[in-house]
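Example record

One chain of 395 residues, shown exactly as stored in the release files.
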Amino acid sequence: MLETEVAVLGAGAAGLSLAHRLAGHLPGTRTPSVVLVDAPPGPLRPPPRTWCFWESGRGRFDAALRAEWRWLRVCPPSGAPIEGDIAPLRYKMIRSDDFAHLVGRDLARSPNVRRLEAAVETVEDVPSGAHVRVRAPDGGSAVLRARWVFDSRPPGSLPAARTTLLQHFHGWFVRTARPVFDVRAVELMDFRTPQPAEGLSFGYVLPLGSHEALVEYTEFSSRPLTADGYESAVRQYADEVLRLGQARIVATETGVIPMTDAPMPRQVGASVFRIGAAGGATRPASGYTFAGVQRQARAVAWALRRGRRPVPPVPHSARSRAMDAVLLRALDSGRVDGPALFSRLFARVPMGRLLRFLDGRTRLYEDLAVGLRTPAGPMLRSAAELAWLPRRPFD
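Predicted structure tokens for this chain:
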């Protein structure tokens, strides 16, 4: 039997971030032993993906950034684009492979962190800890005993919710024959896409050079598209809206992010906790997760190093989650026109403030000011309705 104080299950953003926070000695604090369990190559290991977030100044993972920007652009369905300078914030893009390489290099030098490539089979509470049964790539099984377990793996199903939408997307990394991309600004939401019968859609462009970019098609709706549906949607956006001309697809990525008002359980055993998206790090109304993961990892590591009970916090305030629940209900019910709503918000609220709002870092009066820029009647009706809606499983 292997023994450790902390077992971290999954080596995605959440698992790697927590292990990174616990790597090495900090004066005046404890240094717990850590085993990071990473799934072997195959269906349990997620494909490479892109994460975006915003912060001011230098950040912990800047060495792994693919790009960063200080200008954002939102395109309404018609009319002039809305642009904004978000200084002192920077909108940052990081690829999961680059993040894993940077963090992995630091973990390899840490005397208290051990990496284990294995598939997790079961997690069971035992007195004063938990047992994690794992299976190695060669088929052999073992039991890892830990005082604390932090599980970042995707849950098998979503908790019951009043509203659950899916943010699902497909993107192309492209190289174009001619310079077509504005390297100065991110196309955050481009609503010049055909809108689905339910929900909303938009284009998203992260320019990496005048000839290179990640071009994505995104929907907020209840069901993902087929593979052919995504390809058709991205091609229509690239050809008819962006008019890229001759372009080569270098790589692709596809993802689904639940946007739900369900309370995500952070403790699933006496010594077993969920972190990351599985533990509520995703902001319900936007789908952004990376910044919430960092706040959660920082708090858990602080508690562990000081011998406190390391319950992962909810990275988003109760007020933020309540406002998100109203927005999700208004969108799902069709009471508000999504493209019109978001275009209006970005036109009437400074973009830096809106990003701070999406990160839960605004004060009450700023939240109220954002709320006043939304359609009052539909939003109030949605808020009143929430109290009577039952929570239902997502099927």
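Notes: The longest strand covers residues 247-260.
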